[in-house]
Specification:
Length: 105
């Protein structure tokens, strides 16, 4: 039985390697956040914020699915856009009132 790689239907290029590497890094980050949260480490309050995770997933999903090519320009745009994203979320958090569920009486 021949594999897809040996038949030439799929080639293992540097781009494919980077996609697997990015996917593995996001998975490892998620596992680290979960395990750190279970052990209640202090670092979790900084790295486990949902806005970090959302930004990473929103920015790298198009790269994984070949919508956007992964190159220096894409990486630079991701890094340069992050402060604007962070500021917009902070502004949204200050404008939107705190839900009643989180308010202590």
């Amino acid at each position: 039985m021949r594999s897809i790689l040996s038949e030439g239907a799929v080639s293992f290029t540097f781009g494919i390697f980077m996609k697997f590497l990015i996917s593995a890094a996001v998975f490892a980050y998620g596992a680290f956040v979960i395990f750190s949260g279970i052990k209640i480490k202090k670092i979790i309050f900084y790295i486990g914020r949902i806005r970090w995770i959302t930004y990473i997933l929103v920015m790298f999903t198009p790269i994984i699915y070949n919508v956007v090519r992964f190159d220096f320009r894409t990486m630079a745009a991701i890094l340069l856009f992050f402060p604007l994203y962070w500021w917009a979320i902070e502004l949204f958090d200050t404008i939107v009132p705190e839900p009643r569920v989180y308010q202590h009486s």
